[in-house]
Amino acid sequence: MSWIDAARHRLRTLVGRERLAREMEEEIRFHLEQDARYEGAPFGPDAARFAARRRFGHVTGIAEERRRESGLAALDRLSQDLAYAMRQLVRAPGFTLAVTLTLALGIGANATMFAIVDRVMLRAPDGIADADRVVQVRSWRTGRDGGIDTTVLHSHPSYLEFRGMRDVFAGVTAVRGPLDVPVDRGPAAIRARGSLVADDYFETLGVRPALGRFFRIEETDVSRGAAVAVLSHGFWQRRYGGDPGVVGRTLIAGNEPYAIVGVAPRGFPGHTLAASDFWLPLTSARGLLGVGGWEGARGALFLTVMARLGPDVPPSRALARIGVSWTAWQVSPNRALPWPTPYLVSMVPAESASRPEHRVAKLLSGVALLLLLITCANVANLLLARALARRREIAVRLALGIGRGRLAVLFLLDALLPGASGAAVALWVAWLGIPVVREVLFAGTQTTTWSVDGRLVTFTVVTALVAGATAGIVPAILASRPSLIDALKQGARDGSVHRSRTRIALLVAQGTLSVALLAGTGLFVRSLQRLGDQHLGLDLNRLVVASFSSHGSGLSEEGLREVQDRMRQLALGIPGVKRASLTVGVPFSGVYSMPIRIPGRDSVPGMPRGRGPYLYAAGPDFLHTLGTRLLAGRAFTESDGAGQPVAIVSERMARTIWPAGDAIGSCFVIDLRSTSGQCMTVIGVAEDAHRAGIVEADPWPLYYIPLGQEPSFMDERSLVVRAADPERIIAPLLHAVHSVRGDLPYVSVQRLAESVAPELRPWRLGASVFALFGLLALVVAAIGTYSVTQFSVSQRTHELGVRIALGAQRGDLARMVTGESLRIGAIAALVGVVVVLAAGGLMESMLFQTSPRDPLVLVAVVAVLLTSSVAASVLPAWRATRVDPVTTLKAD
Amino acid sequence: MTPRRAMSDSTRRDQLTGTLDMLVLRTLSLGPAHGYAIARHIERLSEDVLKVEHGSLYPALDRLLRRGLVTAKWGDTSTGRKARLYTITRSGRKQLADRSAEHERITLAIARVMGRA
């Protein structure tokens, strides 16, 4: 390949310039010696040397030509230009620092987002060998409404079928999880994430243990199984301090003890980025699954199936093999719909792209790109200003015969060199920024490659080059255009220079982008405001929830009730606690729903068949504790638990079912075979309250029954505590809980607000990131405006001097300067508003009850931009008024 | 310097150097050689008709290197001295074949015009 040889030669030229030059000399000396020896010997050595030289030609001239032909000359020139550009940059440290830092900021923001996007969307989880050979088996079909339903989960019998396909798969495994599992007992108990795995999980993923061993085939066998556990490296470090003697110790997960047999390698999060803390065999951990009898049930879809393709087996062949017998062992829950079609998904990327965090990550990447554009525009502007300031020097160089191309290269280098050092700073910015963004967006994912690595460095360097070239290209083109060159050649008194259209266009572009970012900030802030202003029907910020698993406590039902009542009493004794109530069902983390029936009616209005209103089984003080108002009737009393079946219904439920307003006194029945079927009399109506989240389109019907009357399977009780300052009662509450009994499984005590924090995260994040970037953009744009105005004033000293001499008032001059800057700001604001109006729809889905064209936001943003334009011109305006006509007119 | 003159300059140089390039490639197609050997071979081959200044050979070699048509490395000569030996690459051979064919066509055409074919 000629281009490979050529490229190799060129690289050698580049790297070994000195050596190449030496070799050329050596080569010519050899030639002359040889020639003298063979050709001119009869007339003596001197004559021979002379003859050889004559035959050879002009040695220096040829050496010169060789430098040109070999590309050495171009390199020489480039290195001269580089050295020159360096000297110039060192001589202007303020300019260099400004350009470097601006670029570093823009590139750093992009590098951070690249690291996140790269990790999450472009790569497999760490530690999986040849991840592109590992596939997940999924299926899809056209759903009832014509959309596409995809299924990720399989039944255990299906998994066994895949395992039988030895001809196409080198390994097949299945996994359930990661699930939240309470671990250990007493005050040391925690909640951790465990995955339940079928045979060959680690082998299929190609992972080797860091310590001990992984599961043996008989330990994961469905018929036998063994109570053993493998820990993740991170969990081992955190919980066991990296103790090498951990193998053989016991881990209590849920109710059962498991013998720890090994530790997974560092950085291996499991089959998803949502890291597992430990792995248990599916068979022995069946207690954690909550359901039994799945071994032979084709309808029990709960396993994710992963397979490693056999050597040289293309995915298409594996897929064809699955298709052969697919319908024989799949269940079709609805015969009216077509059979699901299987397909394979590689383990790359690590996450399916539908999570809301991904939308935010993409948005952030877009914002980072905008910021980079702004920085490029600003750097271009700085470069132009510098070019104008240096025009005497450039005029001299032009007079000395520098080519236009070479002048353009010089300007380009002015941007590329700071860009290169900016890249180094950008990596530092990314190094600082990655943990922050990761924590906010992808908390709980564990992997070692969240940091600066080769890919990130490559990305950063390429971005820096592109950004440098983008910023440098405008001045470079202008510099090589005769009009600017002519302008440069003219003296400093040229009045037209300050009105450079390019510079103003760049300023307007910066201002426009700032408006877009600031508008984004405003829209997110408005969304957050509207979210906070919602009436939830409960006091989110006053409540603490203590929830404990009744399973595995070793207590009888009565014993457990006693313990829980005691906890409530202790909680009420904590200073600052106002009310406390036991409940089955906690807002925002899990509320039961069961179909109901109204005696004497065929159907329940507003309730689709098989669905019912949500219900809480609540202590007498529950509504008071939550802060939910009772609109009519009475609250529960202590005696209701053991008394007649009664219920309090929500306003929505009362209106839907008893529109005539006769809810109180009516009765309804929980429509389940297992319940007694006694009719519950409605004794009160409560206001509607949010149940599932901060964003709830329409309140779903909801009712409350006294604790003690709930169906027996509603057995997970929690304690809700109301306090003026919830943060301060968490520690005393935990202490109280453990003082009742020291060997309880994990008890979670947290503020209710924390359960909705993940839901608010995208808005919080959007608001803060937009605010940060918007502010940066505004500052950068203001600096740009300042430098341009300042420059224009310094260029017009002469003109200003004349004006003053002719009697212009200083106030007029200041207004003139400020007006110029304000005009640019006004144009930018106008264009920016148009852009926001046009592109706002892109953000619509991320906002809450806020129009992307919110007039208040637009007005505020325009006001901010105009203010910053005026502020940026204050100093130059002041300078303009200080011009001394005598000095300026005498100068030049 | 106007663009047109620059073009005519470079075309003329291309025609002149093109011949030399071809002769160098032709020489190297027989086997690796150092600069002096190439110069001598071209002299002998053309029976001293195409006498070139030895020096002008080297820029030609540099050009061929840059285009990846030859490669160079230091090695021992038959007399045991160190010299820079040039080797023709595969694309060099291809270029040589293309150019030879073209050259033959032109020579034939000229001969026809002169009434000798």
Describe this structure in words.
The complex is a heterodimer of chains A (892) and B (117). Chain A is built from 27 helices and 24 strands. With 892 residues, chain A is α+β, with helices and mostly antiparallel strands. In chain A, the strands form 2 sheets. In chain A, strands 1, 2, 3, 4, 5, 6, 7, 8, 9, 10, 11 and 12 form a 12-stranded mixed beta sheet that branches. The longest helix of chain A has 44 residues. Chain A starts with a helix and ends with a helix. With 117 residues, chain B is an alpha+beta fold. In chain B, strands 1-3-2 form a 3-stranded antiparallel beta sheet. The chains are: A alpha+beta (892), B alpha+beta (117). At the A-B interface, helix 1, helix 2 and helix 4 of A face helix 2, helix 3, strand 3 and helix 4 of B.
Average the pLDDT over all residues of chain A and give the rounded result: 83
Shape of chain B: globular
**Mean pLDDT metric of chain B:** 75
The computed structural class of chain B is alpha+beta
* CA-based shape of chain A: globular
Termini gap of chain A:
62 Å
By DSSP, the count of extended strands of chain A is 24
Work out the radius of gyration of chain A: 38 Å
List unreliable stretches of 5+ residues of chain B. Answer: 1-16
**Helix residue percentage of chain B:** 55-70%
Number of helices of chain B: 4
Fraction of residues in H or I helices of chain A: 40-55%
Beta content of chain A comes to: 5-15%
Alpha-carbon distance between the two ends of chain B: 44 Å
Oligomeric state, counting identical vs distinct chains: heterodimer
| Radius of gyration of chain B using CA atoms only | 16 Å
Strand order, largest beta sheet of chain B:
1-3-2
Low-confidence stretches of chain A: 492-498
